[in-house]
Inverse folding.
């Protein structure tokens, strides 16, 4: 990407037109191309920096391999099961969703499904319109006073609970992550799954599809439900064993089931189709004007912000940076990346552990972005494609142990980041601070105090502290037309080991480094780049 090129965004699923408008307003070039085959998407995706999707586009390994410019994927909605997140992380692509934009709408759909089941509205409607006037065939049930079993009490589950309480239902919730305090606040009874299954007159599911929730309503669990239970699933297909549900409907143990989502979508056929007391919708949970405007606006704002300013909101594979945190954290992240890069460039041997210590003011900040920035700088010597997103993933993949340590007390500096690496040869560290809370400065290098701005092309020399050295190095660089920008010296003690960090206006060629290495007293000479 050239510096003047605007970020390019592809909207590949049907989305409210506000998304394209916002992208354009935020300075992105945007194309809306929906309904393509995977092969067409693979052929096209290499041109784009951002991809905005709903649930139809499948972002597979093959798509990500072809997405050579892609930096961010935004899901206008909640579920991201159509994105290979681990592979996106490995490729350094941020994945975002819009976790709240369609929650009310989906909760309302679940309640609508519950009423549709309680009063058999779809079938009564169909028969009435056929002219049958089936007044006696549709005896319903009230929901008032009944128990609603809520599986999953997150954003949508908690809205469903509040609506159900308003309908004078009792709500029993099963969610291993629901605290007793939150259950009290929501006005629900926290229960284990078996208790919920035994008590509920209606069951509604609101969990993601995970290894733990897959088939949570299995044949065995369906058998534990109360006879006459009615079941609603507006979360994800795969939470219910569909064949077992059909059998339970056929036997009358389950009095009704309403699915918005199916194990395989689009569900063009299903053993459940045509089953008595079964109703369904084609994944319409989020389909209201309000929700689609919300998620379209949010996804465009989030992606546009990331592509134009680097701000991160609602990312699933990288720590979020709120608008309040971002200005404070940015200089720390720049410092952290420079320190990681310095250690990476100066440590040619295998590193078993990297520790990131923060001291003073730095301890008050969100450590995750600081750690990711150190790792990103550190791994850059090993990987050209490392970035803030894939750095923690790469570190793990390479067996690098990462430690975070906070020390509230301050030493010489009001704020400090120290990066230590452990190799077979032992442990050594570099440390830096922020001048005026904004300018990253190195203050210590492998135990020697040296102040330097780590920037552009630099030269690092370890030598014996002796008269005449500075003149000799100055002459060598001058003879090779290398202009020195800054000159930073430090030493362990007079006449002991000394380090010199020079910023130079042009890269130092190999032969100059070799010549520097041969100067009297020089132990090591190395070019650095930041
Ligand atoms: N039908 C649609 O169009 C539609 C629209 C929006 C969301 N959804 C889906 O609805 C589901 C819920 O969305 P949300 O925004 O409420 O998500 P959320 O993350 O806010 O809530 C999910 C809840 O499930 C709980 N949970 C996780 N594992 C569990 C387990 N093993 N047993 C019980 N509970 C468990 C979590 O603790 C959390 O409270 C998601 O699957 C989402 O994709 C569907
Ligand atoms: O985009 C949709 O229509 C479905 C969205 C829904 O499944 C979600 O998880 O947000």
């Amino acid at each position: 990407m050239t510096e003047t090129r605007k970020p390019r965004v592809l909207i590949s699923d049907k989305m409210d037109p506000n998304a394209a408008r916002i992208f354009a307003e935020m300075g992105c070039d945007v194309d809306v191309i929906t309904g393509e085959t995977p092969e067409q998407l693979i052929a096209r995706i290499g041109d784009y920096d951002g991809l905005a999707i709903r649930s139809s586009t499948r972002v597979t390994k093959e798509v990500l391999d072809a997405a050579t410019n892609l930096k961010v994927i935004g899901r206008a909605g909640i579920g991201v099961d159509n994105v290979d997140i681990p592979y996106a992380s490995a490729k350094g692509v941020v994945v975002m969703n819009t976790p709240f934009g369609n929650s009310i709408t989906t909760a309302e759909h679940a309640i609508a499904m519950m009423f549709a089941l309680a009063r058999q509205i779809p079938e009564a409607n169909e028969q009435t319109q056929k002219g049958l006037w089936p007044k006696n065939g549709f005896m319903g049930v009230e929901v008032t006073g009944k128990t609603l079993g809520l599986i999953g009490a997150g954003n949508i589950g908690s809205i469903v609970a509040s609506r159900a309480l308003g309908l004078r239902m009792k709500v029993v919730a099963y969610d291993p992550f629901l605290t007793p305090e939150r259950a009290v606040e929501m006005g629900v009874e926290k229960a284990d799954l078996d208790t919920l299954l035994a008590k509920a007159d209606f069951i509604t599911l609101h969990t993601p599809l995970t290894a733990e929730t897959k088939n949570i309503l299995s044949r065995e669990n369906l058998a534990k439900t109360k006879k006459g239970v009615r079941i609603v699933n507006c979360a994800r297909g795969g939470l219910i064993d569909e064949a077992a549900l059909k059998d339970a409907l056929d036997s009358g143990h389950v009095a009704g089931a309403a699915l918005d989502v199916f194990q395989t979508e689009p569900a063009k056929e299903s053993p459940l189709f045509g089953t008595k007391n079964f109703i369904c919708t084609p994944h319409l949970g989020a389909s209201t004007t309000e929700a689609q405007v919300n998620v379209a606006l949010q996804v465009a704002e989030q992606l546009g912000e990331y592509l134009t300013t680097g701000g991160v909101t609602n990312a699933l594979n990288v720590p979020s940076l709120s608008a309040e945190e971002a200005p404070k954290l940015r200089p720390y992240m720049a410092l952290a990346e420079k320190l990681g890069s310095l250690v990476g460039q100066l440590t040619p041997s295998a590193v078993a552990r990297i520790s990131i210590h923060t001291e003073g003011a730095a301890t008050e900040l969100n450590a995750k972005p600081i750690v990711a920035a150190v790792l990103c700088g550190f791994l850059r010597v090993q990987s050209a494609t490392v970035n803030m997103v894939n750095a923690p993933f790469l570190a793990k993949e390479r067996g690098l142990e990462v430690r975070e340590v906070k020390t509230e007390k301050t030493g010489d500096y009001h704020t400090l980041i120290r990066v230590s690496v452990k190799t077979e040869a032992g442990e050594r560290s570099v440390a830096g601070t922020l001048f005026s809370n904004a300018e990253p400065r190195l203050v210590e290098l492998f135990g020697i105090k040296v102040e330097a701005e780590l920037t552009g092309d630099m030269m690092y020399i370890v030598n014996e502290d002796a008269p005449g050295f500075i003149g000799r190095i100055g002459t060598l660089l001058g003879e090779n037309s290398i202009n020195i920008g800054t000159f930073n010296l430090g030493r362990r003690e007079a006449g002991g080991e000394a380090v010199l960090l020079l910023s130079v206006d042009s890269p130092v060629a190999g032969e100059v480094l070799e010549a520097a290495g041969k100067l009297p007293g020089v132990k090591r000479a190395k070019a650095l780049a930041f």
Notes: Residues 326-452 form a domain with the 60s Ribosomal Protein L30; Chain: A; fold (CATH 3.30.1330.90). The CA atoms of residues 331 and 438 lie 5 Å apart. The chain has four domains: 8-101+290-309, 103-280, 326-452, 455-530.
